[in-house]
Design goal:
151 residues, Hypothetical Protein Ychn, Chain: A, five-stranded parallel sheet, 5 helices, globular
Length: 151
């Protein structure tokens, strides 16, 4: 083949490969953010929050899209993240090992109130990350454009 034919042919092949890869690149770059609120000491409600998080994570993984999920527990819902009283402790431990994109946040205000009431700080699961205020954290996430779910 001559250089006159080979150069346009190579250019066309490179362009075709780039076009074929473009949809995958766009899907991989798309990202979602979800905040889930738990404020009740109710195992059914906690399991619903975990089911929502799992289903959302699996859905976006199947589409090749990223999703970041935060489960924010405050008030009576903080029992979800307590090492001594959580009715869903085993599931949370499994989630921590399975889903890197799901985090569990505990409310500092609630923890202080429980500490005062119980005379000692309640033990939280190792996976729990503290925020100063669960409600304020959820409000700020919404202001940042996160989607919000209250199961």
């Amino acid at each position: 083949m001559t250089k006159r034919v080979l150069v346009p042919l190579c250019t066309a092949v490179v362009a075709a490969v780039a076009l074929l890869q473009a949809p995958m690149t766009i899907a991989a770059e798309k990202s979602h953010k979800l905040a889930i609120h738990v404020d009740e000491n109710d195992a059914q409600r906690m399991n619903l929050a975990l089911n929502n998080a799992k289903n959302v994570a699996k859905y976006y993984k199947s589409k090749g899209e990223e999703v970041e999920i935060e489960i924010v527990a405050y008030g009576p819902g903080l029992h979800m993240l307590r090492a001594d009283t959580s009715p869903v402790k085993a599931r949370i431990v499994t989630f921590a090992a399975t889903y890197e994109n799901i985090s569990f946040l505990s409310c500092g205000n609630t923890l202080k109130a429980m500490t005062k009431k119980e005379g000692k700080e309640p033990p939280l699961l190792d996976i729990a990350e503290g925020v100063p205020s669960g409600v304020v954290h959820l409000m700020e996430r919404q202001e940042e454009g996160w989607s919000y779910i209250r199961p």
